[in-house]
Amino acid sequence: MSPKNPASLDVAKTPLEVLRFLYVGSSDVRKDREYYTKTLEAKKIWDFTSMGTRVAAVQVCSGPLLLLAGHRPAPSVLPVFEVGNLKATVKVFRSRGWLPDGEEFEIPNGPCYLFMEHSGNQMAIFQDVRPRLLERRLRETG
């Protein structure tokens, strides 16, 4: 939390613990990555093509990574929150009427669920069981 920002409250005890990623829909990941890195001076973290799609991670600020995603519709933004225990969080949320948007699936960092709030905005929650997996692969493959 930023001590300079009075709107930054201590939210460490909320179920949606950390906003880790913003999946940004992209119609051309290479062009979008170049825009972020050259125009906005973002740092490229990784860039992979796998399972028929390309995703590039860029760090534009101290907040979450932007994941420029060829498999997401452009324009769109999907906030992805990390939770400490996905099964426990899902159980608590279900007891409050929460419904996932489909079945549990995997992202590189671990198990994940999509869900929608009442206005139709899609979000995701995941448990980070494979921290920094893509960064490690990038170092291994060069």
List the helices and strands and how they pair.
Layout: E1 18-25, H1 29-39, E2 43-50, E3 53-59, E4 65-69, E5 77-82, H2 86-95, E6 105-107, E7 110-116, E8 122-126, H3 133-141
Parallel strand pairs: 1-4, 5-8
Antiparallel strand pairs: 1-5, 2-3, 3-4, 6-7, 7-8
Can you give me a brief rundown of this structure?
The protein is an alpha+beta fold and 142 residues long. Helices cover 21% and strands 35% of the residues. The protein has 3 helices and 8 strands; from the N terminus they run βαββββαβββα.
Give the helix proportion (percent range).
10-25%
CA radius of gyration is 16 Å
Order of helices and strands: EHEEEEHEEEH
Uncertain spans, ≥5 residues at pLDDT below 50? 1-6
Shape: globular
- Major beta sheet, specifics? 8 strands, mixed
Would you write up a description of this structure?
It contains three helices and eight strands. With 142 residues, the chain is α+β, with helices and mostly antiparallel strands. The termini are far apart. 21% of the residues lie in helices and 35% in strands. Strand 3 and strand 4 form a beta hairpin. It has an eight-stranded mixed β-sheet.
Notable traits:
8-stranded mixed beta sheet, 142 residues, alpha+beta, single chain, disordered N terminus
